[in-house]
Amino acid sequence: MGQFGSAHEPIMRIISRTRTTTQYSGSQEKYTWWRLAVKAKAEEKMDAKKIEELKTFVEHCKQNPSGKDGKDHQDEKQFESKNPDSNEDIVESDVELDNSDVVAPDNGPPQKMGDPSIEVTEENQEAAQLSKAKAMDAIADAKGYKARGMARAMLGLWEEAASDLHVASKLDFDEEIGLILKKVEPNANKIEEHRRKYERLRKEKELRKIELERKRRQVKPELNAAKKTSRLAIIYFTATWCGPCRYVSPVFSSLAGKYPKVVFLKVDIDEASDAAAEWNISSVPSFFFIKNGKEVDKVVGADKDSLEKKIAQHAG
Question: Keyword Ion transport on this protein (predicted)?
Fold first, then answer.
């Protein structure tokens, strides 16, 4: 097998394969191909048909010495269009960036800084320096309040920490103070609500104590008056938590309207504990019948029939 293929390979295919591996321009290189092809066919003893094909190709080269036909010319144009050194403009693509945390710029008109009509004097400069020094001191104080507030939060001193952090945020607010306050403030608010609740309960207890003392002072004269009266006086000892008392209390009230000449006196043993102790009250309801300063009868329990019978008996 020779340099250009076997003897059975068509001569035009040999020439075509030779052209694809050779850069050429002008008729000189075409004749060089022709000489190489003649030499190759001479070595391989070409037959008459292949020699005819070679002659046809040589004539074609003579008529077109540039070696460029329509198809080659079109391919060259396509190659030139892909050349990176061409004059076509480069279209630049957009850069994909993460702008989720980007803040839109303030494109409004700039704010006025000072009054240009005022003359700058040494007194003004000293005042400005003094204001600046105060601002720097405030920032330093803010750092101190912030550090102490964070330390108190770590120790669980929620109210003190909230107070310090609020002062720091007013002097020089930053995001870290805001994050700590989100944890500190709920606990401080719970403590404050708890304190207000029990302060209210203590005040209510104190008011009840005062009211009981007033009623106690009021009951004692009434009991003394009931003891001294010549009319029949009925002292009814009761309690708010007593079930039978709630049953018999409406009966006692209706009897008071039925016997207007009888003195009806109602005493709560919880409100007048001293009176209950003085009368040795061991159970409620208890009814004591007093006439001319002496105990003439007594009913213990919610026996409304017995109560009404005794009232009718002693009131006559």
Answer: no
